[in-house]
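DM between two lab members

TW: hey, do you still have the WD repeat-containing protein 55 entry open?
JB: yeah, one sec
JB: this one, 355 aa:
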Amino acid sequence: RKRDTPEDIVLEAPANGLAFHPARNLLAAGDVDGDVFVFEYSCWEGETKELWSSGHHLKSCRDLAFSEDGQKLISVSKDKAIHILDVEQGRLDKRISKAHSVPINSLLLVDEYLLATGDDGGSIRLWDQRKEGPIMDLKQHEEYIADMALDPAKKLLLTASGDGCLGVFNIKRHRFELLSEAQSGDLTSVTLMKRGKKVACGSSEGTIYLFNWNGFGATSDRFALKAESIDCIVPITDNLLCTASTDGIIRAVNILPNRVVGSVGQHAGEPVEQLALSHCGKLLASSGHDHRLKFWDVTQLRSVVVDDYRKRKKKGGQLQALSSKAWGIDDFFAGLKEEEDIVPNPVEEESEDSD
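TW: and the structure you got?
JB:
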């Protein structure tokens, strides 16, 4: 039987890291025990399978990414190490044991050879895989580096930190550019929107902060979701992104005009740790504290058009379901008939835009 999305994958521990292969139907996950898994996924029932796993990390795997050509898988860990694995064999090709002096929290691949890592102490390091040691080592943040993003020219590295600041680093010239003013909560995620004209940051306060490109000092706009936090954001189109939250709901959010479009799916009652978008752009994968990797069909999000006109919605209204599996209408929750059983807190479809 063919399904709309691949079946759930159940792990022995929650996954922190999640990454899709750039060309093949492969999904990599790194869990809190330090294990890295690569799965081949399929919409045909019973066809999704584990290809290999690696237990080389001594502590929690925090982040991972496939190389541009898809032949290598790079992972970073709480054990301060960077691992480079061969995707075909699952073999460890290279280990940088003490890449940082404190646990590494985030990873971003710049190109075929360069990669950036951010640690729990607020340091950023840039690595050239052809050389020994980091080629850039800068510390401007006071707290952990939660996420990183890159401009299309691969010149500026943007960092979201637990100190509430957006950092800007010039990786062509290996220098620090500036820090934004501090926001009220931890900045947990960062991505480019509106064809690079806007930068969106998620926060632990449940607010999305927007910055103009080249106006990184202060926010241009902010948008509070009725969510406990925004732990991860993934852009689907130039205007629309998906957010993962500790309330277990994956929301589709339009940027300028700022609207919560609806719910893509959920890990019922469990925080969502990470999101990733497939190479074809049709599937969103999520990992939750329920030890599950779930897949969501986001094809129809590409045709969503949000106009400036705001419709008033009654208070306490439910989020609009944007997929057949949203609100738990899938195999796992088939026995639960009432929405109220699945959604612990009703949320409004739209939030007020703030200044």
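TW: got it. The radius of gyration is 20 Å. Residues 328-355 have pLDDT under 50 and may be disordered.
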